[in-house]
Amino acid sequence: MLTKRIIPCLDIKDGRTVKGVNFVSLRDAGDPVELAQRYAEEGADELVFLDISASEEKRKTLAQLLRRVAHAIDIPFTVGGGISSVEDVAILLDNGADKVSINSSAVRRPALISELAQKFGTQCIVVAIDAKQIENEWVVHLVGGKVPTERKLFEWADEAVSRGAGELLFTSMDHDGTKQGFANDALRQLAERVSVPIVASGGAGTVQHFIDTFALGNADAALAASVFHFKEISIPELKTILRNNKIPVR
Question: Which of 75, 146, 165, 227 is placed for a possible disulfide with 127 were both Cys, Cβ 3.0 to 4.6 Å?
């Protein structure tokens, strides 16, 4: 059985790490490079950096920050935010990123997924999906969760994978920042539909939530932010408890 991954997520705004609830009410969580070093030392398997203002403000993720991170850590990291072209991805990968995460731009122009997968390989293309339940359907949202679309979660996941997504990062907007647990029913359905790894995001609050998303949601990786940033859960302790619950981790 493949080992499950623990992935701290650093939402970046104006060069600082921030964290909100349901995608709003942001508060400062520290220097991203210092946090990245801490997580690497504590045993995080990967990191995700999301420039949460990039799509909205039409800015590109800062290559300078990536170079600092790449020099500071020795674990893989993914970068997302404002990516809309082959050129954008080339810059990010050249500056140290291992994978890129695309969201709004992929929904607006799905062919982008295919273009990036053909150019760089599926292994480094992550399609992030932000969705919330509206009238019992999971509706895909864009621009940091601000804009609802006609897309539905499961059909969009199918298409993204068929076009070359090597991984899906699903964030439940209903669960984000609430610390009430992951959207395990939706995660399980995703895992049953597609052949690529699923990263669970949105709702981590306790160690039990991580156990549940691996055991009940069939997630391949669990991503969280505030519980790690503010030291509510320690990664070494989390991994020990997961092992004790027969969940394979590195």
Answer: 165
The one-letter amino acid code at 142 reads L
Q: Are the beta carbons of 156 and 170 closer than 8 angstroms?
A: no
Exposure string for 121-153, b = 16+ CB within 10 A, e = fewer: ebebbbbbbbbbeeeeebbbbbebbeeeeebeb
Q: CATH: 3.90.1640.10, 3.20.20.70, 3.10.490.10, 1.10.287.950. Which one for 5-244?
A: 3.20.20.70
pLDDT digits (tens, 9 = 90+) for 17-34: 776 655 555 666 678 899
Q: What are phi and psi of 61, to 5 degrees?
A: -60, 135
The pTM of the full predicted model, rounded to 2 decimals, is 0.92
| Spatial CB neighbours of 155, under 8 Å, sequence gap ≥ 6 | none
* C-alpha 142: how far from chain center: 15
Exposure b/e, 63-97, CB count within 10 A at least 16 = b: eebbebbeeebeebbbbbbbbbeeebbebbbebbb
Q: What whole-number distance in Å separates Cα of residue 176 and Cα of residue 179? A: 7
User: In this predicted model, what pLDDT tens digit does every residue of 6-19 receive, in sequence order?
Assistant: 999 998 887 777 76
Residue 25: other Cβ atoms inside 10 A:
10
Q: Which residues are catalytic?
A: 11, 130
Separation between Cα atoms, residue 188 and residue 192, nearest integer Å:
6
Give the pairing of strands 147-152 and 167-172: unpaired
Distance between CA atoms of residues 183 and 209, nearest Å: 10
Q: Are 217 and 181 in contact (CB under 8 A)?
A: no
Could you tell me the residue ranges of all domains in the chain?
5-244
